[in-house]
Amino acid sequence: MLEPVRTPWQEHLLHFDPMIYAEVNWDFVLVCDSSSLDSEAEEKRRQYMSELEKKHFKIKKSKDGKKTFYGVRAPPDIFRKYVRLLKNPDQGCTNLVDEHVSETSRIRIVNFILLKTSIRSGETLDDLIKIKVFETAFPLHTLNETTGKNLKERWARWRDVIYKQPVQQIREYFGEKVALYFAWLGWYTLMLFPAAIVGVVVFFYGFVHFNSSKITQEICSANTTLMCPLCDQNCPYWPLSDTCTYAKVTHLFDNEGTVFFAMFMAVWATVFLELWKRQRARDASWWNLYSWDEDEEELALELINNPECDIQMHQHSYLRSTVVLLGVAAMIAILIGIAQALVVYRVVATVFFMRSSWHFLSEHANTAAVMSGAVLHYLTIVIMTKVNRMVSTYLCNLEKPRTFTERENSFTTKVFTFQFVTHFSSLFYVAFFLGRINGYPGNYIRIAGEWRLEECHPSGCITDLFIQMCIIMILKQTLSNCMEFLSPFIKHKIRTLKDRRSRVHSEQGSGDHVTEAWKANYRLGEVHIFSLFDEFLEMVIQYSFTTIFVAAFPLAPLLAFINNVLEIRLDAIKMTRLQRRLVPRKVNDIGIWLQVLEAVGVLSVITNGLVIAITSDFIPRLIYKYAYGPCAQGQEDIDCLTGYINQSLSTFRTQDFDRRTHVLVDVYPNTTECRYRDYRNTDYSFSVQFWHIFAARLAFVIVFEHVAVCIKFIAAWFVPDVPQSVKNSSLQQKHTHLLDQLGMIERSTEV
């Protein structure tokens, strides 16, 4: 078989970096360990290559040290069948080879045939890789003027961080699925910019009123207001003014702008998805994939590989579905149990920190417990991510999905559900249960009858939620990006250093450039069928953080925007320089991720309404201002929130402490009363104001969610999913096709 003639420029590139010029003659490379003396493995390799030769594949075998490389090339008739069966689905692609299919389609077709080819024992390529007959199989990175070279030099570089992505060239090199991922990520990042600006404005609104808030002024001057002890053993009474700084920080995120921002983000999520649907429709139309059918393509590939194949039919089993459903429920219960364990940790840690000899730690015991709990929560996320994937894979196999897309959708739904519970169960507790089920002094709810549950700060619980979100989001984005990039980078450098001596010998001795290109690709990081899934999952989890509890963390869109600007280039560098080439997938949308994003958008409306109504002090302040405060009593020339703090604290008689409470009274002796955050009467029953606030909170949630949902529906109706130009283009194509068919019928009738 003759090798193609290389230009001097290509020879120059190959001499310095063989990876960037892999011979286009070879579609795939299979690698095995040639140092093994296992005759059975060698026989299975021989059988597999024999099966490929029966299908008229060309094969080249090359040994290099302990590794043996097999290059395979498919015959042209395979691609001619593909074009005829599917009426050239690659129409409009600018990078076509002689067989009139794109390079990405060629790789996808060959990959399908390799995976479907089996030896006499019935084992396929996946089976052979699992039992170490082959180590790996991968397509080759290639370099030409229009795709690979431009992607490396104009996309996968830090200096291009602010420039538009070449989505069309990404599609020509990595396929539609990768191109749509980067198109979606770029669109999401662009749409984050206005959300980030509004979030920063809301944050600075709170910052401007940092010292002028009447509530924070009352807290900072409450030197004589003694609060009840925060623990049971040797804990002192403490003045409310000790939490002055905490109260000021709380006002940064719990102010009048919070309601506006939550409503804005509900509308933003809807507009973002609707505009993305329009952009996706344009891309699918430009790529001639608007009416593409995955089932039809898979059936065509099955027939190309084996005309006598049996069609794999759709299957459904109520028994299997029940087992899967029970498995999902059991896993969710375990994850919720882990979240409760984190609650117990914070309770025990608070007591431990309070008893610490380090004065600063004992003074800020509650904050230290929340922050350390957030770090521990992040560690559980890292560990449970691996467990969630294993369980999802097992449950997905039980369902026996028919196609790759069905399997991916099933896997995506389960992994995202588990990951969502892992990430957000602790946050839901902090937002909606912290400080609301702990009882009151003298009648605390205790864990195992011993440890008191946590209490909210006198200025509200929203700062605890902010701390949790801030730590988890920052840790996840920074550490995940570092590991995601550094891991393949370091592994590639180590492989390159280990192989340097043999590479120099090969360049100076054999001069086999083809083998050098294969080795250079082999040294790159390994990829798998769900490599792109991991990227999507990371971004959708971030999207959830950006929308679901954004009322407590208005800076979340800004952090997400900065992260994504870097993420695009990190992924680009990783895919083009540090990892083997992904097997291209043909798709016309982002699949089930769109439904996941829509579900997150609906959930964000509900949770943000609940955060404002329950977690925030917006409703209690509003009720006090117009029903109980000085303005409600007809007083003028006075701040309407004057006296709010005193009104929001109930009084407890110290003689009613239970026997487990031993208060340290050295600092404040002869104390007969202390204050705690609640709305209760002197007999510790709920006051009328408590029920007034409860009713107002319930009414606000109902009104907020209905208004937000109505706005979402109006926005969805106002912005059509598919642009009229795309609909008209599709209509024109159908009209032209029918005219052609009509002309053929009339000519045949005349004859």
Keywords:
single chain, 751 residues, alpha+beta, 4-stranded antiparallel beta sheet, two-stranded antiparallel ribbon, 7% strand
Q: Could you characterize the architecture of this molecule?
A:
The structure is a single chain. Helix 13 (318-354) runs antiparallel to helix 15, helix 13 runs parallel beside helix 16 (404-432) and helix 19 packs parallel to helix 21. It is built from 25 helices and 14 strands. Residues 1-24, 94-99 and 506-511 have low confidence and may be disordered. The chain is elongated and about 100 Å long. Helices cover 62% and strands 7% of the residues. It has helices spanning 8-16, 39-54, 76-86, 103-116, 125-130, 148-154, 167-174, 176-208, 214-220, 244-253, 256-286, 294-305, 318-354, 359-363, 365-399, 404-432, 462-508, 513-522, 531-548, 556-578, 593-615, 618-628, 644-648, 688-718, 724-750, and strands spanning 28-33, 58-64, 67-73, 136-139, 226-227, 233-236, 238-239, 439-440, 443-444, 446-447, 451-452, 649-653, 662-664, 673-677. By secondary structure, the protein is α+β, with helices and mostly antiparallel strands. The strands form six sheets. The chain has a four-stranded antiparallel β-sheet, with helices on both faces.
Main-sheet strand order equals 2-3-1-4
Given as residue ranges, the uncertain stretches (5+ residues, pLDDT < 50) are 1-24, 94-99, 506-511
Structural class, by secondary structure, is alpha+beta
Beta content comes to: 5-15%
Radius of gyration: 32 Å
Backbone shape: elongated
Provide the residue-averaged pLDDT.
82
Compute the separation of the termini in Å. 48 Å
Helix content: 55-70%
Count every helix, treating DSSP H or I runs of 4 or more residues as helices.
25
Largest β sheet strand count, sense and barrel closure: 4 strands, antiparallel
How many strand elements? Answer: 14
